[in-house]
């Protein structure tokens, strides 16, 4: 059945499922739960975090540029922030370094 | 306007926009374009890759477990595969290590 012919309820379900698949793929491949928590604000929490409260918060500017907002968890990551955000200017490198740091703690323990 | 009251066309647009926001957030925060390329198959390509053809391909099993499929690009990543997939058994750690490797090449150059 083509989307255009679907009833609104059915269409809504189909899209919800697609968004869920996307969210699950994100979690499985990148290791983070990705959530929209406000207008242009996203939170991510790592599958390797000690606590689900250990979130990183980002705001996307009108031009599409993301920046890290302070959270209790981000304030424990000074070294990675200096290296990857301030020197390397790369949010993906920073987020990746957080994953490697948290995952290595778990696999060493 | 509540979603249930929307016309199908309008609803479709609203969901498409939501999926696009999600996709953009993925790209900005994790550094990868995430694409569904078949039933339970996802491809990711890094913003730091030399070529858009440098993709990693994953298949999600029925139980939700992802595994890496071979691509020309993955076959160049033997060391990271050994360390993070075979020893650490972590796809997010592997994907993160690829980001850090590619990003560091770009920032050194």
Automatic annotation (TrEMBL), chains A, B:
Any one GO BP annotation for this protein: cell division
Keywords: Cell cycle, Cell division, Mitosis, Nucleus
Pfam families linked: MAD
Gene Ontology cellular component annotations, sorted alphabetically: kinetochore; mitotic spindle; nuclear envelope
Family designation: Belongs to the MAD1 family.
Compartments where located: Nucleus
Keyword Cell division listed: yes
Protein name, entry field: Uncharacterized protein
């Amino acid at each position: 059945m083509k989307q255009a012919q679907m009833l609104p309820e059915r269409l809504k379900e189909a899209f919800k499922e697609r968004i869920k698949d996307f969210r699950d793929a994100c979690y499985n491949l990148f290791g983070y739960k990705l959530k929209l928590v406000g207008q242009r604000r996203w939170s991510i929490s790592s599958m390797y975090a000690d606590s689900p409260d250990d979130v990183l918060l980002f705001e996307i500017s009108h031009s599409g540029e993301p920046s890290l907002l302070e959270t209790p968890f981000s304030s424990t990551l000074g070294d990675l922030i200096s290296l990857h955000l301030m020197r390397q200017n790369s949010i993906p490198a920073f987020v990746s370094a957080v994953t490697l740091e948290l995952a290595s703690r778990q696999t060493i323990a």
